[in-house]
Design a protein that fits this description.
By secondary structure, the chain is an alpha+beta fold. It has one domain: Histidine kinase-like ATPase, C-terminal domain (Heat Shock Protein 90, 2-Layer Sandwich), CATH 3.30.565. The protein has a four-stranded antiparallel sheet, covered by helices on one side. It starts with a helix and ends in a 7-residue tail after the last strand.
Amino acid sequence: MREFVGEQCLRAGADPQACFDLKLAVDEACTNIVVHGFAGKPPGRMTVSFACEGGRMTVVIEDRGRPFDPDRIPAPDLEAPVEEREPGGLGWHLIRQTVDHFRYESDSAGNRLTLVKSARARQQS
């Protein structure tokens, strides 16, 4: 899925940093789906689609794993020493940091995560 998103980013003419950020977000999201959504069961089908319009790349990941509420995932305490940190939450932290917008929806048809990223990396000041 990472390779697919990377190829699509390049075709869209996205900046290398924007491509890297979006691929990282997709990696984290797919890993979370496999580890948590399918929790101990063989991973089910996941689909990934990509679109780029108006300089905005959109990736949609669909699955039928166990649903969750991303707003209930606490931000990790990045100031605490690694050995004292609560497990989990780092993947969602990375997703939130690397995309411009995300939306998660779940209904009887399954789960849908939409990630949106500008094709142009933000300038660091």
